[in-house]
Design a protein that fits this description.
Residues 1-18 form the signal peptide. The protein has 630 residues and is mostly beta strands. Among the domains are: 2-10 and 412-623, Immunoglobulins (Immunoglobulin-like); 156-279. Helix 3 (543-551) crosses helix 4 (557-580) and helix 4 runs antiparallel to helix 5. It starts with a helix and ends in a 26-residue tail after the last helix. 46% of the residues are buried. The structure holds 2-acetamido-2-deoxy-beta-D-glucopyranose (4 copies).
């Protein structure tokens, strides 16, 4: 009765809260500040996708919100997910909730995996942004600063070249130019140059610098026309660079959106080797592209280049084709012919108006970021659609999306939190949550508890990791808990700090029926009583085995069914808590969980737990310094 009433109450509250909270965002007990985006993932041919994680940088707006000049907290920035849409790393706390761009895994620096990204500039001018390379521990290894005379680190490209010694970045510079090219030699207009630099990653030294001012006349632009009036600074964005890449021979390709052209550029002296597309194409072409993005060398030799591009085919001003596509183009620089050798159309037959990316995976699969709403797809080399996914929320996009292999081993220990619920000594229960932001290869968690601050940790159970956060439920009042991360070889790869469990500030108010408040149990006693009765609730799959363990007797059907019910109820409560957050709700949920357990555990006639006299903390030993295993 108590339970159903409270549940009804919670449910009502839940609906009210739902309107104020975005259900398309995840939340976690262990990282309460993080609100990670949920994905909708669709597999068409699961077995044929390449291994790897997804790397992307959700943003809701490029400029921060007025008047706070801040972004929505913990929803934007660099994120890693696995191919089921499960969160692996929330990087927003690392960058104080700034927008981040071009976030990718790089496996070509040395034998260690790395990540690179562009960290956005601050509107108040306190930071111009930078290119950052972090290591497998998410520690910054290199920071490439923006050049002094530039406004910011351009958000389009931070392309760390093989070996990791240098990186390419796009640049925007503004300056007045004579309009002679438009037959108006007496006039001057400001224009923005689309250029690029190759920078030494360690020293920031400029190794190569190229400006469209010096090479691309005004009349190639489809934005700035002969009839347009001159502009003051910053001026007409006549070229608009959005990608740069380099081949082994040392030459570059760039994509200029407002000339609809891809340029081959000599690495020796910067002269234009060839123009592909646009008004002055050097090639015989039987196809068109426009407003392209993300040009890459796929392969290259002295006579032929295979390049990939995102052919947006449209922008804010209109579209030239009906479907955006990823194009693979063979460019023959002897016969001066360009042919499409592969076209991957956007699976939903729509247009990518902003941004987008095309990545060729090691197994030749094609991974395409279509940008808006995080829409992305993976294709077999023959173009077959293997996977499509997008954000559950409509409020976010990502400029580019990448897939790649990565090993994340955070230096921070796993995060643990625990809460104690119950109405009597018989049903008192501790729920433990654990997560490890950024760790890629945890397959299982071991849980420990100890009675005193200097006591011996007692193993109280384990749970498979099947989601970012794992919940573990154990009988009794566990005052100090901790968790160990286990990899596929059974090796301990991380150990949390010892965490004291949260308890209600007023036990009576959350349904405690005892005369006096409960006292912490001794995990060694509880563990022996509990042998085989531990419960985990981190996945739907484990529900059966969990119930089996809880029931502790396969043939005892009623106990089995009952245990399953409890587990489900707890799991539901857990989900509600996750979705809502907030202390009030949490306490209310505690009430419910207590109620459910109360009913069931009575029926099971479980062995009674002995209360344990709590021994006060010893002086002089800060809790954080005590690790379960040194
Ligand atoms: C360059 O690559 C093309 C294929 O793209 C190939 O047909 C040609 O033989 C290659 N040339 C050299 C010199 O390797
Ligand atoms: C496609 O990409 C461009 C990048 O230049 C993007 O800004 C544009 O809005 C998208 N649609 C385009 C280009 O037409
Ligand atoms: C776009 O689709 C319409 C109707 O399906 C068709 O008539 C038109 O020719 C297409 N445009 C292009 C550029 O393919
Ligand atoms: C399991 O259930 C069976 C039948 O209900 C009973 O005979 C047996 O004693 C039970 N075993 C335990 C360990 O409770």
């Amino acid at each position: 009765m108590l339970f159903s009433l409270a549940f009804l109450q919670l449910f009502t509250l839940h609906n009210a809260v739902a309107q104020r909270h975005d259900m398309n965002l995840m939340s976690f007990m262990t990282l309460p500040e993080v609100r990670a985006l949920k994905w909708e993932v669709n597999y068409h041919h699961r077995s044929r996708v390449a291994p790897g994680y997804w790397f992307f940088t959700p943003y809701s707006q490029i400029e921060p919100e007025q008047p706070t000049q801040k972004y929505q907290k913990y929803q934007i920035g660099p994120y890693i997910y696995d191919e089921d849409g499960m969160l692996i790393w929330a990087g927003s706390p690392m960058w104080d909730n700034q927008n981040v761009f071009d976030f990718r895994a790089i496996n070509k620096i040395d034998d260690q995996p790395h990540l690179s990204m562009i960290v956005g500039s601050e509107v108040d001018g306190s930071s111009k942004g930078k290119g950052v390379i972090v290591d497998t521990h998410y520690e910054i290894e290199q920071q490439v600063e923006v050049l002094d005379d530039l406004h910011d680190f351009n958000i389009y490209e931070f392309n760390v070249l093989p070996g990791g010694k240098s990186a390419l970045a796009c640049t925007y510079r503004s300056r007045p130019v004579n309009m002679e090219d438009f037959g108006r030699p007496t006039e001057e207009s400001w224009v923005i140059s689309g250029g690029f630099v190759e920078l030494d990653v360690a020293t920031n030294e400029v190794l190569m610098q190229w400006e469209s001012f010096d090479h691309i006349p005004l009349h190639e632009s489809n934005l700035f026309h002969v009839w347009d009036t001159p502009m003051g600074p910053p001026g007409w964005d006549y070229a608009y660079i959005n990608a740069v890449d380099k081949n082994e021979a040392g030459d570059y390709i760039i994509s200029l959106r407002f000339t609809n052209t891809i340029y081959g550029i000599s690495g020796k002296d910067g002269h234009i080797l060839w123009r592909l597309g646009g008004l002055e194409s050097d090639f015989d072409m039987d196809f068109i592209f426009s407003k392209q993005h993300d040009v890459r060398f796929v392969s290259s030799n002295s006579t032929h280049h295979i390049i990939s591009i995102m052919n947006n085919a449209s922008d804010e001003r209109g579209n030239d084709e009906n479907i955006s596509s990823a194009l693979y183009i063979e460019v023959d620089t002897v016969a001066m012919m360009a042919r499409v050798i592969k076209r991957v159309n956007r699976p939903d037959s729509s247009l990518t108006r902003v941004y987008g990316s095309v990545q060729t995976l090691p197994n030749e699969n094609v991974f395409v970021g279509w940008s808006e709403r995080g829409y992305q797809s993976e294709h077999a080399p023959n173009g077959d659609i293997l996977m499509t996914a997008r954000f559950a929320s409509t409020r976010y996009s990502t400029y580019r999306a990448y897939k790649g292999e990565f090993v994340g081993r955070p230096n921070q220990p796993p995060d643990v939190m625990a809460s104690v619920y119950g109405t009597t000594d018989e049903d008192i229960t501790t729920i433990i949550y654990v997560s490890w932001n950024g760790a890629t290869d945890v397959i299982e968690w071991n849980f420990y508890a100890q009675a005193y601050d200097v006591g011996t940790p007692v193993f109280i159970g384990h749970a498979d990791k099947t989601d970012f956060e794992t919940m573990y439920i154990v009988d009794g009042y566990m005052d100090r808990v901790a968790a160990e991360a286990i990899d596929v070889n059974g090796k301990v790869i991380g150990t949390s700090r010892i965490q004291r469990s949260d308890i209600p500030s007023n036990w009576k108010a959350v349904g405690w029926l005892g005369e006096s408040d409960p006292t912490p149990g001794d995990p060694s006693m509880i563990a022996s009583i509990n042998k085989g009765t531990d419960t985990t609730a981190n996945s739907h799959d484990s529900m059966d085995s969990m119930a089996e363990i809880m029931g502790n007797n396969d043939s005892d059907k009623s106990s089995y069914a009952n245990a399953k019910e409890v587990t489900n109820a707890i799991y539901k409560a857990h989900k509600l808590i996750r979705d809502m957050g907030g202390l009030l709700i949490f306490i209310l949920a505690a009430y419910i969980v207590g109620g459910v357990l109360y009913g069931t555990y009575r029926m099971r006639q479980k062995s009674k737990l002995r209360s344990y006299q709590h021994v006060p903390l010893e002086e002089g030993l800060p809790l954080d310094d005590i690790h379960l295993r040194s």
